[in-house]
TrEMBL record:
Class in the EC hierarchy, top level: transferase
Annotated binding of Mg(2+), by residue: 715, 739
Protein source organism: Rubellimicrobium mesophilum DSM 19309
Domain PEP-utilising enzyme C-terminal: 491-839
A Pfam family of this chain: PEP-utilizers_C
Protein's name in the database: Pyruvate, phosphate dikinase
Family: Belongs to the PEP-utilizing enzyme family.
């Protein structure tokens, strides 16, 4: 239905209004009016009107001002489509002039009248006439002399008396605000916040609620949740004899809204106004379906509501608010899931002190940045860096931090300061770094001479003593407290549980170590989608064995070395199976170039010669012979499996023996064995025959029957093109988009960083294809591979497991293409669960 909007409209409950025509603030004010809130008379100017004003077409000012009656005082505020896009600052008290001043002296008193006139001349001079602000600083005392001086200054600077006609004032204010929106800086600023180039500005003209004058007059803001945690509570400030957002400016001392010891409050000063605000807040939350921050003014004891904006909030609060609104029946669960930005969840995932463990509390300060870490106390940034260089976790303890401490903070595992609050240097930097931090631990005393901290009761801790900082509770604990990986609060879990109800794409984790696997399980990954096994061969003594194996003269010798690696590898897998408790675990067989195991320096060569009992020159010659010019396209992945089959046989045996071992512990394990870097069907046939043979042997030796699934990684273009025949031998195809991107572009994963910046800057590529999945090229190969794979085997399971897998873009693509799951790094799992729900809704 087409609704014709007038371009200038009095905001009433049923005036036709839309945010697309008048902006978000105008629309919101109409909603507040509909809810019966005491909003002063308001007129809204459309984007089109304001654009016209900027271009010199001033509308009929009489029509704008008529609804306000005789000699009004007005404010003008910006109203863009999205309040986050900013806009020119509000101008208040428009209409102040000699006559109005005289009249106000009688009603509001001389002091208030002078103060209002001064404020208006100041903002008009600076923001409308664009004069140098210095002569227009507000005086300490609003005297007639100060007013005269300011009016004289105006006349001196402009060669004209201060305009006395309210219509002229309104016209000039509208013009200057309309033009400010068109300025280049304003344009760039809002485009950086996502505004389209053609974004318009609406303006709202509103009758002033004075906030300055007789009776209880002032202004403030109120909200009903804590912006950091999202917990319900009445928060805000009130400032007597003030206007606009002065209560938030921090220049004068404000008072709390509710009763608090040691300070007067709005509750005592104007109990009725507070009760009214609370009632409006409740209605606002339910009907606007959002936590709002309300801007209000008291004019001689009468409450006016000037504006309401969505409470700005932390990621944590966003989750809690969305869940609470859904639990209270204000919004449906689907909407709660849609309201949280998936990427923001990553900031919530921190280690926590185990709540079940005993706590040896030294002191409590302000919990400035969540998470927990233990380490040795250091008292300077330099010591923190030295400690980090030794690989020793440390806790930086300072009276307060300064910018010189930043490198030390980077090096520390956590930070504690004796002074400071939520916005002190230490707190802000630590939150940015994701570092646990406690500030304002004022009961601690740093004794610099003795190099110790002294806690209440005389307990002392010196440099090198181990402590734990709990940035979530604000506690400093003695010793190394047991921690849990990212304990997620109830709202977080609830939101993700709801997300799971709405999504139809599986989410697994890429996990190589027991530590990764535990995080994956705690984040409710549905299994491990990629366990890269190579790091297992680079550790400790294993790399030596790998070298021995590579240089062995015969298959029998190779087997002898691999027999020593077998039990280690079996333990690796058994640990993963235990942690994943019956959930699928997909193990990728050996993938890296053999080249990477060659010794790279003389010492390495000498060690190898010693182990092999061969002359150094022979070893050197063999290493030289094995070196590759292009190892990433050389002897790696399944090619190693084909040419040195004993490695895959050992890994298969380790997997199956671990399955037998884990069998007693609950859910049966059905492992998935994945072959990397395949480009031809025959590779799969050969490896499958050997893995099947190993499975048969282990079954025969142990007398235990078990199942397993064999699958293929599609990460060469040829594998995608030949997916139909490859899938005939593969229960699943997992697309490795890292290698697939590398090979589709012919772009080295390891080297492209050097020039990709230039490529993106010149618009050759829109984005780095290793970060953002290339839907056009790599996407087409994924599409072809999926379609042909299904043609070869209708029930083939499809997934992607490259670094792209956790991104919204890849998730959207995979769902559209009918993939079964994505597999991403453990910390991305919650993000992927939420994204998968959002793309399904
Ligand atoms: C890939 O290539 O996308 C992949 C998952 O394997 P890797 O990153 O280990 O090469
Ligand atoms: Mg790969």
């Amino acid at each position: 239905r087409h609704v014709a909007f007038p371009q200038i409209t009095l905001v009433t409950p049923d005036a036709p209004m839309s945010a697309e025509v008048y902006g978000g603030r105008a629309k919101c004010l109409q909603r507040l009016i509909r809810l019966g809130m005491p909003v002063p008379q308001t007129v809204a100017l459309s984007f089109e009107t304001v654009r016209g004003i900027a271009q010199g077409r001033m509308p009929d000012l009489g029509a704008i001002m008529a609804p306000f009656g005789f000699a009004p005082l007005l404010s003008v505020r910006p109203s863009s489509l999205d309040p986050d896009w900013g806009g020119p600052g509000a101008i208040l008290n428009i209409g102040m002039c000699r006559d109005r001043y005289e009249a106000l002296m009688a009603t509001a008193g001389e002091r208030a009248a002078t103060s209002l006139y001064l404020r208006f001349v100041q903002s008009y001079a600076v923001h409308v006439a664009h004069l140098d602000p210095e002569p227009f600083d507000l005086p300490e005392e609003p005297t007639r002399d100060a007013l005269k001086a300011m009016l004289d200054a105006y006349e001196r600077e402009t060669d004209e008396p201060f305009p006395q006609d309210p219509a002229i004032q309104v016209g000039e204010v509208l013009r200057s605000m309309a033009r400010a929106w068109e300025g280049t800086t304003a344009r760039l600023l809002r485009q950086a916040k996502g505004a389209p180039a053609e974004a318009g500005l609406g303006l709202v003209v509103q009758a002033m609620a004075l906030g300055v004058g007789r009776g209880e007059s002032g202004s403030g803001v109120i909200q009903f949740v804590n912006a950091e945690t999202g917990e319900p509570c009445v928060m805000g400030r009130y400032l007597a004899q003030s206007q606009g957002r002065e209560a938030l400016s921090g220049k004068r001392e404000t008072m709390p809204l509710t009763k608090q010891a040691g300070s007067p409050s709005l509750e005592e000063l104007a109990p009725f106004a507070l009760r009214e605000l609370l009632a409006h807040g409740k209605v606002g939350r339910e009907r606007l379906r959002e936590e709002m921050q309300i801007e209000f003014t008291l004019e001689n004891g009468r409450l006016c509501i000037l504006d309401a904006v969505r409470v700005p909030r932390s990621a944590r609060a966003a989750v809690r608010i969305a869940v609470a609104l859904a639990q209270d029946g204000v919004i449906p669960r689907e909407e709660a899931v849609m309201r949280v930005e998936p990427g923001s969840l990553t900031t919530l995932l921190h280690r926590q002190v185990d709540p079940a463990a005993p706590r040896d509390r030294i002191v409590t300060g302000i919990a400035a940045s969540p998470g927990a870490a233990s380490g040795r106390i250091v008292f300077s940034a330099a010591d923190a860096q030295a400690s980090a260089a030794r690989g020793e976790p440390c806790i930086l303890v300072r009276r307060e931090t300064t910018p010189e401490d930043i490198r030390g903070m980077h090096a520390a595992s956590a930070v504690l300061t004796v002074r400071g609050g939520m916005t002190s240097h230490a707190a802000v930097i630590a939150r940015g770094l994701g570092l646990p931090c406690v500030v304002g631990a004022s009961e601690l005393e740093i004794d610099r001479r003795r190099h110790v901290v002294v806690a209440p009761g005389g307990r002392t801790f010196g440099a090198g003593d181990i402590v734990t900082v709990d940035g979530t509770t604000g506690d400093l604990l003695a010793g190394e407290a047991p921690t849990l990986d990212a304990a997620l609060d109830d709202s977080f879990r609830t939101l993700l549980d709801w997300a799971d109800d709405f999504r139809d794409l599986g989410v697994r984790a890429n996990a190589d170590t027991p530590q990764d696997a535990r995080i994956a399980r705690d984040f409710a990954a549905e299994g491990i989608g990629l366990c890269r096994t190579e790091h297992m061969f680079f550790e400790g003594e294993r790399i030596g064995m790998m070298r021995e194996m590579i240089f062995a003269e015969s298959a029998a010798e190779r087997r002898a070395v691999l027999d020593r690696l077998l039990p280690m590898q079996r333990d690796d897998f058994a640990a993963l199976f235990r942690i994943m408790a019956g959930k699928p675990v997909c193990i990728r067989l050996f993938d890296p170039p053999l080249h990477e195991f060659l010794p790279s320096d003389r010492q390495g060569l000498r060690d190898l010669a010693e182990v092999l009992a061969q002359p150094l020159s022979d070893v050197e010659a063999r290493v030289e012979a094995l070196r590759e010019y292009n190892p990433m396209l050389g002897l790696r992945g399944v090619r190693v499996g084909i040419t040195v089959p004993e490695i895959y046989e050992m890994q298969a045996r380790a997997i199956f023996e671990a399955v037998v071992q884990a069998r007693g512990g609950g859910e049966p394990v059905v492992p998935e064995v994945m072959i990397p870097l395949v480009s031809a069907r025959r590779e799969v046939e050969l490896v499958k025959a050997r893995v099947d043979a190993v499975a048969a042997a282990v079954r025969a030796e142990t007398g235990v029957d078990f199942a397993y699934r064999l699958g293929v990684m599609v990460e060469t273009p040829r594998a995608a093109l030949r997916a139909a025949e490859i899938a005939q031998h593969a229960a699943f195809l997992s697309f490795g988009t890292n290698d697939l991107t590398q090979m589709t572009y012919g772009l080295s994963r390891d080297d492209a960083g050097r020039f990709l910046g230039t490529y993106v800057a010149q618009g050759v590529y829109e984005e780095d294809p290793f970060h953002s999945l290339d839907l056009d090229g790599v996407g087409e190969l994924l599409h072809i591979g999926a379609e042909r794979g299904r043609r070869g085997r209708p029930d083939v399971v499809l997934s992607i497991c490259g670094e792209h897998a956790g991104s919204r873009r890849a998730i959207e693509f995979c769902r559209r293409e009918g993939f079964d799951y994505v597999s991403c790094s453990p910390y991305r799992v919650p993000v992927a669960r939420l994204s998968a729900a959002q793309v399904a809704l």
